[in-house]
Amino acid sequence: MHDLEASLSMLKNEMILLYIGRGILFTLIISVIAVFCSIVIGSVLALVRNYCTKGLAARFFHALAVIYIEVFRNTPLLLWIFICLVFLPCPAAFSRKMFGLTSVETKLLFKAAVALILFTSSVIAEIVRGGLNGIPKGQFEAAHSQGFHIVQTFRYIILPQAYRSILPTLLSQVTSTIKDSSYLANVAVIELMARVKQILSAANQYNGTGSINVSDVFVLFGLAAAIYFIINYTLSCIVRRMQKNMNRKK
Amino acid sequence: MSGIFSARAWGKVWDYRGTFLLGLFNTARTAIFAILLALILGIIFGLMATSGKKALKIISRVYVEVIQNTPILLQTCFLYYALAFSGHSIGIILTGILALGVYAGAYMAEVVRAGIEAVPKGQFEAAQSQGFTYLERMYYIILPQSIKMILPPMVNQIVNLIKNTSCLYIIGGADLISLTYSFVTGENTGSAYAPAYLISGLLFFVICYPLSRTASAWELALKQREQRIEMIPGQREESEVAADA
Asked: Is the confidence metric ipTM above 0.90 for this complex?
């Protein structure tokens, strides 16, 4: 019981709470940025994979998109994080002190975040493709008959419908990305998961008992689990409500 | 590109091929046992969710929500450190099997639940009225109808599980990714980055691609079958119209 009280006392330490709070912020920001960038890249990939099928140049890009999507979908995220750490050049803008991180950490953050974006865009490409495939062919023909050229057709007719139908799936992808962002903990101490692990490894200095106890594991990882759960469960409740509304409209 | 074309780097990878094979072996056995555990958990909790008994439903719901809404990395760390600091360490591979099995089990449970719920309610009632026991009902009536719905997403979850074996890295893993990383950063073996990552990625791809390919082929076949079924009444109407004329 004494151990548990000692572990809980860590949560009263303002420094630790601030440290974890910044971790939450990083987790959220990284995930949201990753999803937004991935929607852009993923949409391009999905459009190329679905509609670039005529002509030599188009077929070449089609093959590229297929290879990209399949390769990233069938290999682990951690591998891509490691690959980006070695091979990705880091622009000067990201190799200095920022956001309370050291210059080494911002470099790692940039590289690992790019890996996360590359990985997530392959998943989102398939989601967008699912939305595009669900659009009846008549929509294209109708747009064509009204004199829309191909870019206008996609911009005004096809994409708005596709995005609306996949909005719940995209939102649940945010949940997955928040969970995936914990893989960054393998290479740098920036986001929530890594910070909690970091505190655990120094828990003997904070809990006042001079040693790391089982109760520290439960309190710290339990706190992190609760935080992840609250964020993701809220999102998944929103997703479920949206799906219910969409089904009702049908 | 750190020696993707350098014969020396490739030679080094070839000399240390045992490392990669060991990693592949560890990843494979972790994945296989975790898949078994996940299937067992998935079926149990999936059946609980569709049992109609409130208490069982709530237990299953809590399991699924808690596991699905927290990262696998956190769960693995939690399990590993809780066991390690209480002096019951069970080894990295076994920890991985348990953590991955429980994690994938939550997804399997949802897949099983969705599959069973897609079977019309009348089928359950008809089976019951014919005197089938619960197990007979599930085995002879429900399972054959839902298996086509269940298999594609289940295979997708297996692919995810295989990719997630990389979470062993954070607890000092012995899986393919971890061994690849210790190979490229090792003192004697270091710097052959490109060949090593290429090999390790290729091994994952060779395992996962056929699986996810099969899953999407099944999914497509299922969708086309559904569309055909939907079209049948329409066609009949047309032929009736023709017959009338």
From this structure: no
